[in-house]
Amino acid sequence: MKSRLDNFALNFSSSGFKFVISTLLGFVLTPIIIKNVGVEAFGLFKTLQDYIAYLLLLEFGLYGALLATFNKIINLDSNEKLQTFWVSISSYIKVALGSFFIGLLILPFITSLIKNDHLLDHSFYYSYIALLLGFVTLPFLSFKAYLEASQKGYLVSVGLTIQIVANAILIGISLYFKLGVPGLCTALLLSNCLSSLWYFYSSDIKLSDIIAQKKESLANSSLIGQITKMRKAMFFTDLAGKVCLFTDNIVIGYLLGAKFVTPFFVTQKLSLVIQTQLQYFSNSSWAGLGEIYHKDSPEALGQSIVDLTKWIGILGVVALVPLITYNRFFIELWTGPATYAGFSVTLVACLNAFFLGILTLWGWCFTATSKIDLLVPLNWTQTICNLTLNIVLTYKYGIVGPILATLICYVLINMTWLGSLIKREFKTSFLKLQASWILPLSYGIIFYFTWTYLRGPIESLGWFRLILEMSLEASLLLIFSFLLVMNNQERRASYNRLMKLLKRK
Fold first, then answer.
1. pTM given for the model
2. Residue 284 has pLDDT above 80, yes or no
3. C-alpha to C-alpha distance for 267 and 388, rounded to whole angstroms
4. Cα–Cα nearest to 308, from 488, 494, 446
5. CB–CB of 397/342 below 8 Å?
6. Which comes out higher in pLDDT, residue 411 or 366?
7. 3-state class (DSSP) for residue 71
8. Does 307 share its domain with 169?
9. Which tens digit of pLDDT belongs to each residue from 314-355?
10. Are 171 and 33 in contact (CB under 8 A)?
11. How many angstroms separate the CA atoms of 91 and 138, rounded?
12. Is residue 94 a contact partner of residue 127, using CB atoms and an 8 Å limit?
């Protein structure tokens, strides 16, 4: 049987492989797509995706509830697992049907919510419906949740890699035949179907066994009650997350126009890639954290949270500081100066990526320990504040407004509130927890100004020099972080873990 360290390493390395594939394909395809469909049409495509993402709120936290339920019963009676599958799949079928029909009802109003000089008439409606059809894959999320809760995140990464590669191939075909935005939406739909089938295949769960548990599932009131209770809490967590992630393009599309969505998206591209990788670091460890809590003690989990927070802080600084320094030059070389939204967008996006990586870890601790209901008041507060600030700051400051609203909520609400909850539930020092991210961030700020001063002003860079300077800055950041941010005990423990991992067969 694999240890927690083995599972974490395998999950994180597989997500790293997926990260490399998705990054390379994203960087190759994005300028090609923009060139072929146009800046405004690409912005329209991104905005439509976010409208569809909001409809997923109709699952009312089901996926998060399944993660916590499967994690709790993963080593127990297999019949209970099958009963959980039946409850979740039948619930997802209802969600899929409801989301599709509600999506159709709001279709006539979508065109008035996006400022666009060239709405695509029938093509626009086809694109929207193609995205709606993606709800057919929702029941397969049950198998994805099971794999993640079983600490088999590497199989989920394989499924996501299949989706990314298939999507890239289908996008290439649609661009070749000049299918425009409808082609992009169709590619997304078909690739999502492929990954969903992979989750079902790799879970090794037979559909006939699930159906055989139908009667027992309906009679298992405690199981249904547990999932229902978790769904209520997870819904508000999901709501808060979607407000932060998917409102931005919608607000910009409504107040400024779809053509502004493209530079907003492109300028944040690298920071979003890094943000996703930091979140994968948290996602790869959450199931193991739940095991620590259930088998060891809350105090042991609290110490693990502090250690992982510092690691995420260091990795975030190492990856994001060079991006703050060089993002303008990267965008100019990649998609052209017209798609760069400015230094303020770069800086705020990088800070958001840093904090979200940490907040993802802290949030997962409550999911893994079935304490997600404690986050409901926080999520309500954060959602209301984010929505309000999003609109006000976008109206006042333009394109940086949406992500500035998110940053304010992260710093003033989430970090303090979640830190207090962790202190109370997992017996951790509040000051020690906050210091675990403040120290790396402070070091990163000092390093940025030192590097900028020593480097001096630069008007333009070529690809070779850009990659060389970013790599050099990141390498120095990593070395000095290891020496200055971590103490001797932490360095020794990290070295021992690495040696232990390398010696495993």
1. 0.78
2. no
3. 24
4. 494
5. no
6. 411
7. helix
8. no
9. 999 999 999 999 999 999 999 999 899 999 999 999 999 999
10. yes
11. 10
12. no
Which of 175, 200, 219 delimits the end of a domain? Answer: 219
| 166-174: long-range contacts, CB 8 A cutoff, minimum separation 24 | 166/190, 166/191, 166/194, 166/195, 167/191, 168/25, 168/29, 171/29, 171/33, 172/29
pLDDT classification of 1: cutoffs 50, 70, 90: very low
What is the spatial distance between Cα 26 and Cα 448, in angstroms, rounded to a whole number? 27
Instruction: Indicate if 302 and 390 belong to the same structural domain.
Output: yes
Number of neighbours of residue 259 by Cβ within 10 angstroms: 20
CA 254 to chain centre: 24
Nearest Cα residue to 84 out of 99, 98, 63: 63
Domain boundaries, position 283: 250-505
Structure-token pair, residue 185: 């939406």
Confirm whether 244 is domain-assigned: no
Domain assignment present for residue 32? The answer is yes
Residues 6+ apart with CB under 8 A from 293: 300, 301, 365, 368, 369, 426
Are 355 and 437 members of one domain? yes
Spatial separation of the C-alpha atoms in residues 199 and 157, rounded to whole Å:
10
User: Do 449 and 496 share a domain, yes or no?
Assistant: yes
- Residues 474 and 317: beta-carbon distance below 8 Å: no
What CA–CA distance (Å, rounded) separates 22 from 319?
17
Structure confidence at residue 7 (pLDDT): 63
The single residue listed with the structure tokens 């760069």 is: 340
Are 196 and 254 members of one domain? no
Contact by Cβ (8 Å): 295, 374: no
C-alpha Rg value of the chain to the nearest Å: 23
CA distance 160 to 189: 13
The answer on 267 and 139 residing in a single domain is no
Do the beta carbons of residue 62 and residue 92 sit within 8 Å? yes
Tell me whether residue 226 is in a domain.
Answer: no
